[in-house]
Every structure is written in C-alpha cells, then in structure tokens.
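Researcher: Let's do a round of design. I'm pasting the structure tokens now; please hold your answer until I've finished.
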C-alpha cells in the first residue's frame, strides 16, 4: 500500500454520511430515484503544485496553484503558501490513483487554465501578458469522499471535496468512474 502526503480533510466520515443521506423531502426523492446510500469511501487524487508568475502591464504577481496529475482537467486549487506539516497528513491507502501526466504536460495545462481565467476577467485588461509556471518537487493529494447509491446493477456515484466541503460535479465523477473502471478491469 503506497504512503502518500495529503491535505487534512475537513469532513469526517459521519459528516459525509449525513451530507449524502440528507433529510426531508429532497432526500426521500433522491432515495426513490437513485436508491439509498450503500457505502462511502475516501479517495485521494494526486495534484502537482506549481509556482506561477503572471506579468500583466509590467506588474508581477506570484501564485501557488495545484492541478490534478491524472487528467489536468479539474479546477485549479490555489494556496497562499505551500501546505506544511500542520496542514497535511501522511496516510497509507490503496484509494489513490497514480499520476499519469508528465510535468511538461501539466505545466502546459496550468498555463492554459491561468490564461483562460485571466482572459475571462477581461481580455482588454491584458497588456504584455507573460505567464510561467514551475512545478514544485512533491506531489500532494487532495482528499475526496465518494458516496455509492443504488443497486448492484446500477450504481450512482456522488463526490464531495473533503477539504472545501462541497459536492463535486461531472468532471470529478467522470475521472473517478474511469479510474474505478480501470481498477476493476485490472483486478486490483
């Protein structure tokens, strides 16, 4: 079982069961439509932290951002500082997909995502834009909670970001479903 470094989760198993189960009419409707909650599991997705420099109109700004190392498609995490020992844990788990993308490819994706964010804030506000990003040495995992509902023949997956305490959408679900399918195919 690999040993990984992860951000500390802000959501406990009991919290996530309450969140996935819910209460009231919406929970009853969800149970009718998708089935009851069958199980929950932790998952730790690999991210790479980058030190990004943005120069716009001659003003230099530095950011620490992290991108998922499996597909490079998830939203960037942003940090004020490199997470330290008080903010991270070391854990032995099988529920951690391996990094797939190279640092070169991840750097390209970080720059593209940063450029997209900057342009969405106002294309005409950009002047002499220069972007660079350098990967930091270590990988950092982000904890997620998975909720499985339904029957053996039809399972529906829900995902909660265990750091930001929020439900995740289709991009994260698809990434997790693809990893689970590959894991199932290989018999791991």
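Researcher: That's everything. Go ahead.
Model: Designed sequence:
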């Amino acid at each position: 079982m690999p040993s990984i470094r992860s951000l500390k989760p802000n959501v406990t198993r009991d919290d996530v069961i309450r969140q996935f189960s819910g209460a009231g009419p919406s929970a009853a409707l969800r149970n009718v439509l998708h089935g009851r909650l069958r199980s929950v599991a932790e998952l730790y997705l690999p991210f790479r932290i980058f030190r990004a420099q943005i120069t716009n109109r001659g003003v230099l700004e530095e950011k620490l951002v992290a991108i998922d190392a499996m597909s490079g498609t998830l939203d960037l995490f942003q940090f004020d500082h490199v997470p330290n020992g008080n903010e991270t844990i070391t854990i032995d788990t099988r529920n951690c997909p391996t990094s797939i993308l190279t640092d070169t490819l991840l750097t390209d994706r970080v720059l593209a995502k940063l450029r997209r964010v900057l342009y969405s804030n106002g294309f005409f506000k950009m002047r002499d834009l220069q972007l660079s990003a350098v990967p930091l040495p270590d990988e950092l995992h982000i904890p997620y909670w998975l909720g499985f509902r339904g029957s053996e023949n039809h399972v529906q997956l829900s995902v909660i970001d265990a750091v930001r305490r929020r439900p995740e959408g289709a991009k994260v679900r698809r990434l997790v479903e693809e990893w689970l399918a590959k894991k199932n195919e290989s018999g791991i």
